[in-house]
C-alpha cells in the first residue's frame, strides 16, 4: 500500500491503519526504518476488531499452516526481515473500503493469517467507491 499512496490520493481516498500492539512493539518491529504515510490508530482493547467482525485463528491455521509457512519463506528469501511473533498471533484483521457517504462498499475479513486481499484489488475497490 505504501508504494501506491499517490494513486490512493488521486482517487481522493485515505487509508487508516488499525493496530493493537503496544506502541513500543510497533516502533521496534513493524515501523522500524519504514515511513508509513497513512494514519495509524492503536486499539489495545481490540474493540474495533470485534465491532467490525474480525475473527480469530487457531494454532493449526497459524503455526502449522503449510500455506502460511511457504508465504513467509518466500518473503524471507526475498530479503524481508522476520518481525517476530505477534503478541496475539491468532487475531485476524481485514480490509474495508468506505465511500464518502459512509457506506461500506468492500469487506475482506481474513479467514487465516495469510489471507490478505491484493493491493490491486483494493485499488480497484477504491476507484469504484470514488465513482459511486
Summarize the structure.
The protein is of the alpha+beta class and 132 residues long. The chain has helices spanning 5-10, 23-30, 47-51, 59-62, 66-77, 119-131; strands at 16-19, 39-42, 94-98, 104-109. The longest helix is centred in the C-terminal third of the chain and has 13 residues, at 119-131.
Largest sheet entry? 2 strands, parallel
Helix content: 25-40%
| Average pLDDT | 83
As residue ranges, the low-confidence spans are none
Number of helices: 6
Q: How large is the share of residues in beta strands?
A: 5-15%
- DSSP, total strands: 4
Rg to the nearest angstrom? 16 Å
In the CATH hierarchy, what is the class?
Alpha Beta
**Apparent shape:** globular
Question: At the third CATH level, what is the topology name?
Answer: Glutaredoxin
Number of domains: 1
**Do you know the CATH architecture?**
3-Layer(aba) Sandwich
Task: Report the structural category.
Answer: alpha+beta
Order of helices and strands: HEHEHHHEEH
Placed side by side, the strands forming the largest sheet appear as 1-2
Termini distance? Answer: 22 Å
Notable characteristics:
about 130 residues, alpha+beta, Glutaredoxin, two-stranded parallel ribbon, two-stranded antiparallel ribbon, 6 helices, globular
Outline the structure in words:
There is one protein chain. With 132 residues, the chain is an alpha+beta fold. The protein has a single domain (2-131), classed as 3-Layer(aba) Sandwich (Glutaredoxin), CATH 3.40.30. It is built from six helices and four strands, in the order αβαβαααββα. Strand 3 (94-98) and strand 4 (104-109) form a beta hairpin. The mean pLDDT is 83.
Amino acid at each position: 500500500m505504501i508504494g501506491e499512496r499517490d494513486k490512493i490520493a488521486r482517487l481522493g481516498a485515505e487509508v487508516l491503519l488499525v493496530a493493537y500492539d503496544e506502541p513500543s512493539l510497533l516502533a521496534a518491529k513493524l515501523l522500524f526504518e519504514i515511513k508509513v504515510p497513512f494514519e495509524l490508530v492503536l486499539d489495545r482493547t481490540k474493540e474495533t476488531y470485534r465491532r467490525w467482525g474480525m475473527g480469530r485463528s487457531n494454532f493449526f491455521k497459524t503455526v502449522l499452516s503449510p500455506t502460511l509457512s511457504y508465504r513467509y519463506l518466500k518473503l524471507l528469501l526475498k530479503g524481508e526481515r522476520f518481525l517476530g511473533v505477534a503478541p496475539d498471533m491468532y487475531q485476524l484483521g481485514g480490509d474495508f473500503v468506505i465511500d464518502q457517504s459512509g457506506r461500506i462498499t468492500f469487506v475482506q475479513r481474513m479467514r487465516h493469517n495469510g489471507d490478505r486481499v491484493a493491493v490491486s484489488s483494493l485499488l480497484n475497490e477504491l476507484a469504484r467507491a470514488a465513482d459511486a
